[in-house]
UniProtKB/TrEMBL annotation:
<feature type="transmembrane region" description="Helical">
    <location>
        <begin position="129"/>
        <end position="147"/>
    </location>
</feature>
<keyword id="KW-0812">Transmembrane</keyword>
<feature type="transmembrane region" description="Helical">
    <location>
        <begin position="301"/>
        <end position="319"/>
    </location>
</feature>
<keyword id="KW-1133">Transmembrane helix</keyword>
<feature type="transmembrane region" description="Helical">
    <location>
        <begin position="331"/>
        <end position="355"/>
    </location>
</feature>
<feature type="transmembrane region" description="Helical">
    <location>
        <begin position="175"/>
        <end position="193"/>
    </location>
</feature>
<keyword id="KW-1003">Cell membrane</keyword>
<comment type="similarity">
    <text>Belongs to the BCCT transporter (TC 2.A.15) family.</text>
</comment>
<feature type="transmembrane region" description="Helical">
    <location>
        <begin position="35"/>
        <end position="53"/>
    </location>
</feature>
<feature type="transmembrane region" description="Helical">
    <location>
        <begin position="434"/>
        <end position="455"/>
    </location>
</feature>
<feature type="transmembrane region" description="Helical">
    <location>
        <begin position="213"/>
        <end position="235"/>
    </location>
</feature>
<keyword id="KW-0813">Transport</keyword>
<feature type="transmembrane region" description="Helical">
    <location>
        <begin position="73"/>
        <end position="92"/>
    </location>
</feature>
<feature type="transmembrane region" description="Helical">
    <location>
        <begin position="247"/>
        <end position="267"/>
    </location>
</feature>
<dbReference type="Pfam" id="PF02028">
    <property type="entry name" value="BCCT"/>
</dbReference>
<protein>
    <submittedName>
        <fullName>Glycine/betaine ABC transporter</fullName>
    </submittedName>
</protein>
<keyword id="KW-0472">Membrane</keyword>
Length: 498
């Protein structure tokens, strides 16, 4: 905890020099390490597709006849709300505009072909391949918890290759636990650092307040109070309620934009986007988007690092609420509630932004290039009727998104850093609240450093060591389901003999 506090202070004091150094590091990693990110995602997706379709998909995370602890809607809302944050509201609007001027597959900027592909890459980056990286940790931890009946307080406990008292295994387990916390800090810090400027800009547009660093600091204080109250309430009382509230506000906001905007054009455009997405899924997976599409390739690396950084916290959280579900139900649930829900944001918000740009109502691309992402969000919302109400709903959605993500992350990280917890025992509340404060300070440091490229670099760096953790988890899943099947076969043979 002290180490991350020092890093937070370093970010706050780093300034332009630190920003340049981080950007240079991102360029080096993009040039030399992108094949590792692409490779682990492809291997992970193919393996889990096989696992879900095979007879192993029937394995229940719990007793054979055990029923799920949460109903489908409760489970799905917690998965969706915890797996994403307010960044989906921002990026689903601005990503298509970036691809419109930097199109993949050799299309010319702002051409008809560029409009066809503008919303495809973003939906790929938030689609099934991305969500399946969470499923790896979820299945590994859920199997260890509810099938093998092991105590899994940390992600390293779900890796069977590291079981045992040998000193070198203990060292590797400690290293993995540190890597996990490092990744979570990078992912959470990047999310808040990306979203606070957007909320600040929207509030400025709505209230007339100046969009200054003092407004951003005020938002950090409000979030700190909100996060602290949620974490203090615990999992069921705090996070579960926030998840339900989030689903209602998010769906309500999307429906309002869909119904107020060009409804049939948005629906028709999404049908074409899905067609192009599946038609180009192989090329997108291999990051082969054309010789002159460096932007799309760079974005894939950023997203894959970001999703990897969230893998441990999401795996531990979803496994915790998935007792009684089969492996197949977990995988399908994450693909539907998670991936397709995220794609709906791109369909509505991204589709509406492209409609405004193409119809000439507002030059959002120019606004993005001159004033940044926050200005684009505010401009898009102000084109809607009842703009003050829509701005207020947007801000409310952002706060609930952030509170849900940060609260659940603090809950998980505090579990990692606690001493051995008894079965059913929750981490100490003061420990959880201390991590909330660290999250806020780290995120404030990222905001002070500035630039979206800094956020991208933090995500890529945070996700890199988790590539190897993901590989170990895949091996552990295969060992677990294969070795667990052998006693079952022997038991069936004995029954047949007698």
């Amino acid at each position: 905890m002290l180490l991350f506090g020092i890093v937070s202070a370093f970010l706050m004091l780093g300034g332009d020099t630190l920003q340049q150094s981080i950007s240079q590091l991102l360029d080096v990693m993009t040039a030399h390490s992108k094949w590792l990110y692409i490779g682990i995602y492809i291997i992970n997706f193919i393996f889990l597709f096989w696992l879900g379709c095979s007879h192993y998909g029937h394995i229940r995370l719990g007793q054979p006849n055990e029923k799920p602890e949460y109903n489908d809607f409760q489970w799905g809302s917690m998965v969706f709300a915890t797996g994403i944050d307010a960044s989906i509201l921002m990026l689903s609007t601005t990503d298509p505009l970036q691809y419109l001027q930097n199109p993949p597959f050799g299309a010319k900027p702002f051409s008809a072909e560029a409009y066809r592909y503008a919303n495809v890459c973003g939906q790929f980056h938030w689609g099934p391949m991305a969500w399946m990286i969470f499923a790896t940790a979820t299945v590994a931890i859920g199997y260890a918890l509810y099938v093998k009946n092991l105590r899994v307080q940390r992600l390293s406990a779900a890796i069977d290759l590291l079981e045992g008292p040998q000193p070198y295994k203990k060292i590797i387990r400690k290293l993995i636990d540190f890597t996990v916390v490092f990744g979570i800090m990078g992912g959470i810090g990047s999310s808040i650092g990306m979203e606070i400027p957007v909320i600040s800009k929207v509030l400025s547009t709505m209230t007339g307040l100046n969009d200054t660093i003092w407004l951003k600091l005020a938002l950090f204080i409000i979030l700190l109070v909100l996060f602290t109250l949620t974490v203090y309430a615990g999992l069921d009382k705090g996070i579960k309620k926030l998840s339900a509230w989030h689903i209602y506000t998010a769906i309500g906001f999307l429906l309002l934009v869909l119904l107020i905007g060009p409804t049939f054009k948005l629906i028709g455009a999404e049908g074409r986007d899905v067609f192009h997405l599946f038609g180009n899924f192989g090329r997108l997976s291999l990051n082969q988007t054309g010789a002159h599409s460096a932007f799309a390739q760079h974005e894939t690396l950023f997203y894959w690092g970001w999703w990897l950084s969230y893998m441990p916290v999401m795996g531990l959280f979803i496994a915790r609420i998935s007792r009684g579900r089969t492996i197949r139900q977990v995988l399908l649930g994450m693909a539907t509630y998670g991936a397709f829900s995220c794609m709906s944001f791109y369909a509505v918000l991204g589709g509406y932004a492209l409609f405004l740009q193409r119809s000439g109502q507002i030059d959002l691309v120019h606004l993005l290039n001159t004033q940044g992402q926050a200005a684009v969000i505010a401009a898009v919302i102000t084109t809607l009727p009842f703009k003050i109400i829509m701005l207020a709903i947007f801000c409310l959605s952002c706060f609930i998104f952030l509170a849900t993500t940060i609260s659940s992350s603090a809950f998980i990280v505090s579990s990692f850093t606690s001493l051995e917890l008894k079965i059913g025992e929750q981490p100490n509340r003061w420990n959880r609240m201390a991590w909330v404060i660290i999250f806020i300070l780290f995120s404030l440091g990222i905001v002070l450093v500035g630039s979206f490229q800094t956020i991208q670099a933090v995500c890529v760096i945070a996700g890199f060591p988790l590539i190897f953790v993901c590989a170990l988890l895949l091996v552990s899943i295969f060992h677990a389901v294969h070795d667990g099947e052998i006693p079952l076969k022997l038991k069936k043979k004995k029954l047949l003999i007698f």
